[in-house]
Design goal:
disordered N terminus; 810 residues; 8-stranded mixed β-sheet; alpha+beta; globular
C-alpha cells in the first residue's frame, strides 16, 4: 500500500520530515513521487488533444519558463517587499536555526569498540552553520544527559557540496539491519556498519544513491577495507533518479530505478526490481520482480522477525493505485539472504515459492513474529464474519497460507467507532502501540504479545484522548520495549521522552508533562529533550468547535486565539486545510506559525475536513473523486462559521494550503472569492485536466479520477481551478508559491494559473507569484530559503487582512 509516510528511511528521518513539513505549516504529498529523471520535463502516459495556450510553461527549465518565473518574482517582491528586510524573516530564521530545537535521533546499535557497550543514536541536523545539514551520532548516554551531547559528524552536506560544486540536499538514509550484516549469525550484530544515503540536487525528489561506511565515517569507496576483503570498499551507488533501494543483506541490494526503456511505470516509479550483488554491474543484475506499466510502482523488501521468534519474510509488492496493491510473501532461511553464488549457500534448500496474500487490495499487510497484521481500508467479509473498515487484525501466517482465509481465526486488535479511528501503530519487541484518534484528539493504547498462545492482550494506555499530538516509535524494536514518545499541542511546546511499554505492568508514579498532571502518562520514563517556548504563547485559548457542512455533516475544527478576544470581526484569522490522502491533522506545536501569526494577535484555525483521515478511511473516502466537492463544502462551512461567530469577517479571514491543500485554495478562489480577504496557494495542483500527465500525477488518479475517461466531464471539470477562472468575477488578493525543483507537483500548475489570471483579468486582479529556484516539494532547500518563503507568505496574509480591520488607515 502506498501511504504518505511510506518512505524507506529510518524513524528519526521520518520524524524529521514530518517536523519539517509542520515547521513550514504545510501538509505535503509525502508519497515518494516519480517521473522525469535528470533534467525535468513533462512526462505523459497518454497524449491528449487539448488546446492550452500556456502549455509551454510545462517545460520546467526552458528559457521561456524561467524567464516567466524570474519576471514574476521581481514583480512580486516589488509589490510585497523583500522578505529579508522584514522583521518576520529574522524571527522565523531564529526559530528554524535555533540550537534549542529537539534533535530527534534513532538508535543504531552499539559503539564500534569491542569493549565498549555504549549505545549509539544518529541525527540529521541543520543550523546557521550547517545550512544543508550534517548527519551525526552520539552515545545514548550523552544524548540523554542534561549537557550538550558530544556529536560526531558522519557526513557534512555543506562541505560535500563545496567539494562537488553541487547544492546537495539530504533526503534520508536506509541503514543495513544489524541482523543482516552477517545473516548466518541468527542474531543482531553489534552495530550498524553501512547505510545507503539519498542526496538530492537542489531539493528535488530524484536523488543520487550513495553508500556510507559508518565505521570509517566516509563513503564506502573511500573506506579502509579489512585485509582479505576484496569488496570492502566497493560502493553501491547510482546516478540521479527516483530510486528505491534497500538491503537484502550486506552485499545484496533490492533496487528499482530508471534502468532504461520499460523500467518505469506510467507514474514514473520503478516497474521492475533487481537484485544487485556487490562487485557486479547494475546492468547485469537480474530482474527478480516486475509489475505492469499501469501500476504505480513495485518493490521488494525483507521483514526479519527472528528477534521475536518468527521467520525471515521476503515480500514482493505491486502498488496498483495509490491505495491498492497486490502482495506476495515467502519464508527464507538465513542462507537465502546471501548472494546466490556465495559458497555458504551450498547445500541450502531452495527458497519456498511466493504465496499471494489473499486479502483485499486496499488492505495493508505486515508481520509480527509468526503473525500477519492486516489493517483494513474497507469492510471485509471472511469466514462468515464482517470486519469493519479501519480495523486491525492478526492471523497466524502458517494457518493463513495453508488453510486459506475462510478457515482461519482472526484476532481483532482494534475496531473503530463513529468517533474513533486507528491513525497508525508501531511495534516494539513485545508490544503493539496503537495511536488512536477520538474526535481528533490523541491517545495511545498498548497490546502485549503472548508468545505461548500467539495472540495479543490489551494491557492499558491513555485513559482518555487529549487535544495534543502524541507520536510513538520504537527505540530498537528488535531488542527492547522502549520507545520514543513526542508530545505537543498548539500552544504546548514539544517534549521528547523515552518511554517503556513494560511500565504498564508495573506500579509506578505518574510522570507529569510540563508539570501538568492532566497531561500525565505513566508509561513515560525519562524526559530527554523539551523545546523551549518559541513564541509568547501565554494567554491563548485552544478550542475545538463544530461547523455544519452543506449535507448536514458536522465538521470539527480547532481554533487558537487570545483569551478575551473581541468578537467584532476585526481579528485577522488564518484558516488552514488539507483534506486529502487520508492525512490526519492533529494538534501540533509550530514555532514559525507562533512568531509569524499568533504573536501579532491573529487567530489560527485548522479544519478537519473530509478527505483527511481524522475519522478513519471512511472520512477520507467520503471526498474521493466525484465526491471531492464534500471537502470544499466542509471548508466553506468552517469559514462561514468563523464569520458568523463574530471572530472575523471575509475581509479579515485569510486561508492557506499547500500541495493537495493548494487545490483546495484554488477552489476557494473560484468558488467563494467573497469569503476570503487573502489566499496563499503553495506548491498546488490546479490543472486537473492534465495533472496525470505531469510528473507524479498519474499516481494520484485513485484520489481524483482519470481525466482521460468520462471522469472529466462528470466531475473533474468541476474542480479544476485552472478551468474555472471567470473574467466577470472579482477575486481577492492571492499569492502563489512553488519551486522549480519540485518534481512531485509540477510548477506548471501554479505558473499556468498565474499567467491565465493575468491575461483573463487584464491585470486587474491582485495576483502574486514567487517561484523558488531550489527547494523541491517542500518549497525550500535550507532554513534561509524556508524563512524567506514563510515570511513572504505570512507578511502578505497579515498585511492584506489588516486592511480589512475596521478603522484601518488603509
Amino acid at each position: 500500500m502506498n501511504s504518505p509516510p511510506s518512505i524507506a528511511i529510518n524513524s528519526n528521518t521520518l520524524e524529521a520530515l514530518a517536523l519539517f513539513a509542520a515547521s513550514i505549516g504545510l501538509h505535503l504529498l509525502l508519497l515518494r513521487p516519480a517521473s522525469a529523471f535528470g533534467s525535468f520535463s513533462t512526462s505523459s502516459s497518454k497524449k491528449q488533444t487539448i488546446t492550452d495556450p500556456y502549455i509551454y510553461l510545462e517545460e520546467v527549465e526552458s528559457e521561456e519558463s524561467l524567464a516567466f518565473a524570474r519576471n514574476e518574482n521581481e514583480k512580486c517582491l516589488a509589490a510585497l517587499g523583500s522578505p529579508e528586510e522584514s522583521e518576520t524573516y529574522g524571527k522565523l530564521l531564529q526559530v528554524l536555526e535555533n540550537d534549542d530545537r529537539i534533535p530527534y535521533a534513532g538508535k543504531m546499535g552499539k559503539s564500534f569498540g569491542s569493549d565498549d557497550d555504549e549505545e549509539l543514536v544518529y541525527n540529521f541536523w541543520k543550523d546557521k552553520n550547517n545550512t544543508k545539514g550534517i548527519w551525526r551520532r552520539t552515545t545514548l548516554r550523552s544524548y540523554k544527559s542534561d549537557q550538550k551531547p558530544d556529536w560526531e559528524t558522519i557526513i557534512d552536506l555543506d562541505e560535500l557540496g563545496k567539494k562537488d560544486n553541487i547544492s546537495w540536499v539530504y533526503k534520508g538514509t536506509t541503514p543495513l539491519a544489524r541482523s543482516r550484516d552477517d545473516p548466518l549469525k541468527n542474531e543482531n550484530g553489534r552495530t550498524v556498519t553501512r547505510s545507503l544515503i539519498s542526496l538530492s540536487v537542489g531539493g528535488a525528489d530524484a536523488t543520487v544513491l550513495r553508500e556510507l561506511c559508518l565505521v570509517n565515517k566516509t563513503f564506502v569507496c573511500d573506506a579502509t577495507a579489512d585485509d582479505g576483503d576484496e569488496l570492502g570498499n566497493w560502493e553501491f551507488t547510482l546516478p540521479e533518479a527516483k530510486t528505491r533501494a534497500s538491503y537484502k543483506s550486506r552485499d545484496v541490494l533490492y533496487v528499482g530505478s530508471d534502468f532504461g526503456p520499460g523500467s518505469l511505470t506510467d507514474s514514473g516509479y520503478p516497474r521492475v526490481v533487481k537484485e544487485w550483488v556487490r562487485g557486479t554491474s547494475i546492468e547485469d543484475a537480474p530482474i527478480i520482480f516486475e509489475g505492469e506499466k499501469t501500476d504505480v510502482s513495485v518493490s521488494a523488501y525483507i521483514n526479519d522477525q527472528r528477534s521475536r521468534g518468527g521467520p525471515i519474510y521476503e515480500m514482493h509488492h505491486r502498488s496498483l493505485t495509490f491505495y491498492t496493491s497486490r502482495q506476495w510473501a515467502r519464508k527464507l532461511e538465513p542462507e537465502h539472504l546471501l548472494p546466490a553464488a556465495d559458497p555458504k549457500r551450498i547445500g541450502a534448500p531452495e527458497p519456498a515459492d511466493f504465496v499471494e496474500m489473499d486479502v483485499q487490495e486496499d488492505a495493508f499487510v505486515s508481520f509480527f513474529s509468526n503473525l500477519i497484521t492486516i489493517k483494513l481500508r474497507s469492510d471485509w467479509k471472511v469466514g462468515g464474519r464482517m470486519y469493519k473498515t479501519g480495523s486491525l487484525l492478526v492471523v497466524p501466517f502458517n494457518d493463513f497460507v495453508s488453510q486459506g482465509k475462510d478457515r482461519c481465526t482472526f484476532q481483532v486488535l482494534f475496531e473503530p467507532s463513529e468517533s474513533s479511528a486507528l491513525d497508525d501503530y508501531c511495534v516494539t519487541k513485545n508490544f503493539l502501540l496503537l495511536s488512536i484518534i477520538e474526535d481528533v484528539k490523541s491517545k495511545l493504547t498498548f497490546l502485549k504479545f503472548d508468545v505461548e498462545n500467539g495472540s495479543f492482550t490489551e494491557v492499558g494506555g491513555d485513559s482518555e484522548a487529549k487535544i495534543r499530538s502524541t507520536s510513538a516509535w520504537a527505540v530498537d524494536s528488535t531488542e527492547s520495549d522502549e520507545f520514543w514518545c513526542s508530545i505537543s499541542g498548539y500552544t504546548q511546546p514539544t517534549s521528547l521522552y523515552i518511554a517503556d511499554a513494560n511500565r504498564l505492568d508495573e506500579s509506578s508514579s505518574l510522570v507529569s508533562h510540563h508539570g501538568d498532571s492532566s497531561q500525565a502518562s505513566f508509561y513515560l520514563e525519562n524526559l530527554i529533550k523539551s523545546l523551549p517556548p518559541q513564541y509568547a504563547g501565554d494567554g491563548f485559548d485552544v478550542q475545538q468547535r463544530l461547523a455544519t457542512s452543506k449535507d448536514g455533516t458536522k465538521i470539527p475544527y480547532f481554533l487558537v486565539v487570545k483569551n478575551g478576544i473581541k468578537m467584532d470581526g476585526n481579528t485577522p484569522t488564518l484558516l488552514y486545510g488539507y483534506g486529502g490522502f487520508e492525512i490526519s491533522m492533529t494538534p501540533h506545536y509550530t514555532g514559525t506559525q507562533g512568531v509569524a501569526w499568533l504573536e501579532r494577535g491573529g487567530a489560527y484555525v485548522e479544519a478537519n475536513i473530509r478527505g483527511g483521515g481524522e475519522y478513519g478511511p471512511g472520512w477520507h473516502q467520503a471526498a474521493l473523486k466525484a465526491n471531492r466537492n464534500k471537502a470544499f463544502e466542509d471548508f466553506i462551512a468552517v469559514a462561514e462559521d468563523l464569520c458568523e461567530s463574530g471572530l472575523c469577517k471575509p475581509q479579515t479571514l485569510g486561508t492557506r494550503g499547500g500541495s493537495n491543500g493548494g487545490l483546495l485554495m484554488g477552489m476557494m478562489l473560484v468558488l467563494r472569492p467573497d469569503l476570503f480577504g487573502a489566499i496563499h496557494c503553495a506548491v498546488p495542483l490546479l490543472d486537473m485536466q492534465r495533472f496525470h500527465t505531469l510528473l507524479a500525477g498519474a499516481s494520484w488518479m485513485a484520489e481524483y479520477g482519470n481525466p482521460d475517461t468520462d471522469d472529466w466531464d462528470k466531475f473533474l471539470c468541476n474542480y479544476s481551478p485552472y478551468h474555472l477562472i471567470n473574467q466577470n468575477q472579482e477575486y481577492p488578493p492571492i499569492l502563489f508559491t512553488t519551486s522549480t525543483r519540485d518534481d512531485r507537483v509540477h510548477p506548471a500548475h501554479a505558473r499556468k494559473m498565474v499567467k491565465k489570471l493575468h491575461d483573463v483579468g487584464n491585470g486587474r486582479w491582485p495576483v502574486y507569484y514567487y517561484e523558488n529556484i531550489e527547494g523541491g516539494h517542500g518549497g525550500a532547500a535550507d532554513s534561509k530559503q524556508s524563512a524567506f518563503m514563510l515570511s513572504l507568505a505570512y507578511d502578505f496574509l497579515w498585511n492584506t487582512l489588516s486592511k480589512g480591520v475596521s478603522g484601518s488607515s488603509d
